[in-house]
Structure of MBL fold metallo-hydrolase:
Amino acid sequence: MKDRLIPVTSVSSGIEQPLTPDIHCLPIQVVNVCFVGSPVHPHDWVLVDAGMPKSADDILATAQELYGENNKPKAIILTHGHFDHVGAVEELVEHWDVPVYAHELEMPYLTGEMDYPEPDTSVEGGMVAKMSRMFPNEGIDLGSHVHPLPADGSVPHMPGWQWVHTPGHTQGHVSFFRESDRSLIVGDAFITVKQEYLFKVLTQEQEISGPPRYLTTDWDTAWESVRKLEALKPNLAVTGHGYPMTGDELTENLAKLNREFDTIAIPHHGRFVDNDDK
């Protein structure tokens, strides 16, 4: 039986919202994490992404509220390894002692071998783009806890879901799709807020957007990833930043982003933009 889609309203930081009976979104400051698994089956759930630094207590409290005390997840699944998606992962792994899964191309950033490129503060945008020079770009070391996602596209402990390689924002960025109800956990392949502008981040004004400009290194590939996700025809998209989007609004906005990616998403200038092709 398909999961019933629960209408999306506004989402406040630190307040968990159910989107389907087995997808719960927790906004933490400026980023979303997802709890995937029905509270009716409290021993069978996973955490998708791990939020901002120092957010472990919020994640642990929400997990206990949803699934009860001492019911740890089967795994932590990562869309990618940027600081705002792995901020609490080391503390959570120590607390829960569970495996972490990510795309094989993210492994060097999750095993301490490589750092991400420094944020590009030269892209146009508002205060957040300029502030991005202060954002951590160092990799983390999860040691033997981290594993590559299976090559067959399945997602460990998430039956019915498949991972979709959606690079551009990072080389190993992935999104997660469930065909039965067309639910999509996007990560930062596209988002629903203009993340470069402080006012829009503070007000969470909903607006379809490409991946955050200051951390995206391959714009041609990022556009191809949006094309790939639009072709899936999702009915629910939980993005890494901004409110979830559903139904016709999602269909229309995702089509618009695909059509107009060069003007909506790609900055006019920046270290990772080839202006000769504009």
